[in-house]
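re: ur question from earlier - yeah i can do the single chain one, its not a big deal. heres the input i used so u can compare w yours
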Amino acid sequence: MPSPPPSPSPERTRLAATLRELKDRTGLSLAGLAERTTYSKSSWDRYLNGKALPPRQAVQELCALAREPEGRCLALWEIAESEWSLRAADAPSTTTPPPPRPPPPVEDTRTRTDTGHRRTTIRAALVSACAAMAGIVAAAVLLPGPDNNEPQTSSSPASAPASPAAARCRGAACEGQDPWNMNCGSPPETLLEHRTATGAWMSVRYDKQCGASWARTWHTSVGDRIEVTAGGATYSAEIKDDIDAKNYVYTAMTATRPGTTVRVCFEPATNGERECVDSRVP
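and the output i got, formated as tokens:
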């Protein structure tokens, strides 16, 4: 007998529960969602029950219909998508099994910079996302398909689906700014991921629309520190407490252009040496 499908991860379950709340707020049925978005009735059934990870655009369209600022939902989606990617990367092969890799943090709650004047939560990101959303547009009417996650258009006239919130800075204007508050993660590219000797992870993130990069770290310990520089100012973030240690922590942004070398350094609080790695903006 075939083995049963794997149960949804906690990250995907949390995202699905949030999307169900938004659906209930709209008052729409699954068929109604299919009519007003670019995804079919069967696709929404899988997304809302945690059977499949929805595309980023599906999350944005549902937020638009529910008049919900998309920042928190996109943060939950990013965590679930990262978890899914890690599971795929860690799947056993018929040759040499990959080294074990820990899952990402459960919830992305804070951003800290060394200026000490900002401690950003996902709810703060919601406020900025709300300010950036210009309005809600109707989506193309679709014919629902049984097993297809792709848009299925009909000949009925309809307007374009909702688009992501526009970036609030570009280039030098993003220097030292918070990536979430400036809508610079829609979505960002991961230029590099590196596991340190202590088991903590660090990555370089880049947003082409904003023309800026920043560093992210997770699986850390209190007192750890991460820094990012692209040849100019250095921006850092420190793991202040246990909440930080269990979540993603970001630095502020540094303006970068294609070809720029971005250096990220991790300095453990104890029992370890400073590690630095470089990445180049494509």
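Residues 106-162 have pLDDT under 50 and may be disordered. not sure if urs matches, ping me
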